């Protein structure tokens, strides 16, 4: 059995992975809060997509691969299958998105919350172990069943709490505190799953296919940077509740358009205007009773 080192670079990789999970959780909770205040179905879908990317793409998937930078197996190089790695990204984002859709449609109740938490937690665990399955090294992977089950249970509990927080937390301090807790839960699930891993090294050194982590690191970092910048821009550009209230107040204070002024008619005390119209087409002649005496 090969020797495994989960912290090859010391505290740097776990600290960065925790920071990524907290950052993604903060952005995800803010975007999820916008789902509740969105006025149309399109706006709710847009904020749901951003929240799924922040939580699934940054807080979970990017955190996973940042932690994997510190993973090493003695006597072999580690490479990754790119299509399977990309699939693990999609699994994380889609699982979180469906979980948000379950708890975000209709009134929040325990049945919706538990169903969304189970679905999202299983999806997060599937992301983790599919990302592990993408590793290519000179050995075969083995897992301790008890610790795998424990990691899945942690993922389900963490996902349920995260969905509940996403639907209830609104104040900035509460969002930040919740993100700190979510970061602990996500990292706890990851390292619990990693502790279940064992590697049985092959006696014969064969060719290892796939892409090295150093090559994958650049696109992963760029995706995280552009994703975070895009999320921040979307949050800053979107109108807040205060902006909508101010706009409604200004619309109410706006003066109405002045009505068209009625034409001014000069006084006609002796009836000259009426007499001037006699004989014109369309003007009726006075009746005999109205004819003045001679």
TrEMBL record:
Cited InterPro entries: MHYT_dom (IPR005330)
PROSITE patterns assigned: MHYT (PS50924)
Region annotated Disordered, chain positions: 256-294
Gene Ontology CC terms: membrane
Alphabetical UniProt keywords: Membrane, Transmembrane, Transmembrane helix
Regions that span the bilayer: 15-33, 45-72, 84-104, 111-129, 149-166, 173-196, 216-236
Bias (Low complexity) ranges: 257-270
Domain MHYT: 9-200
Pfam families: MHYT (PF03707)
Protein name per UniProt: MHYT domain-containing protein, NO-binding membrane sensor
Source organism per UniProt: Micromonospora cremea
């Amino acid at each position: 059995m090969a020797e495994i080192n989960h912290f090859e670079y010391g505290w740097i990789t776990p600290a960065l992975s925790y920071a990524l999970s907290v950052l993604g959780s903060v952005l995800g909770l803010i975007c999820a809060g916008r789902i509740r205040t969105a006025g149309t179905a399109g706006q709710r879908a847009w904020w749901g997509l951003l929240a799924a990317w922040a939580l699934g793409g940054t807080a979970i998937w990017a955190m996973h691969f940042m932690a994997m930078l510190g993973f090493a197996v003695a006597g072999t190089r580690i490479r990754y299958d790119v299509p399977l790695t990309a699939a693990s990204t999609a699994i994380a984002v889609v699982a979180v998105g469906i979980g948000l859709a379950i708890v975000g449609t209709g009134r929040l109740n325990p049945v919706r919350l538990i169903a969304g938490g189970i679905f999202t937690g299983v999806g997060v665990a599937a992301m983790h172990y599919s990302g592990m399955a993408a590793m290519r090294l000179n050995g075969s992977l083995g897992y301790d069943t008890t610790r795998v089950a424990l990691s899945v249970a942690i993922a389900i509990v963490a996902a349920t709490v995260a969905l509940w927080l996403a639907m209830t937390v609104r104040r900035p301090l509460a969002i930040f505190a919740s993100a700190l807790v979510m970061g602990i839960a996500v990292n706890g699930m990851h390292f619990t799953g990693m502790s279940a891993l064992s590697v049985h090294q092959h006696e014969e050194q064969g060719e290892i296919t796939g892409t090295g982590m150093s090559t994958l690191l650049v696109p992963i970092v760029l995706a995280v940077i552009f994703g975070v910048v895009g999320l921040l821009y979307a949050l800053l550009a979107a109108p807040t509740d205060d902006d909508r209230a101010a706009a409604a107040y200004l619309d109410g204070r706006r003066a109405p358009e002045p009505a068209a002024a009625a034409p001014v008619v000069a006084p006609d005390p002796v009836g000259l205007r009426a007499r001037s119209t006699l004989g014109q087409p369309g003007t009726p002649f006075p009746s005999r009773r109205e004819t003045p005496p001679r």
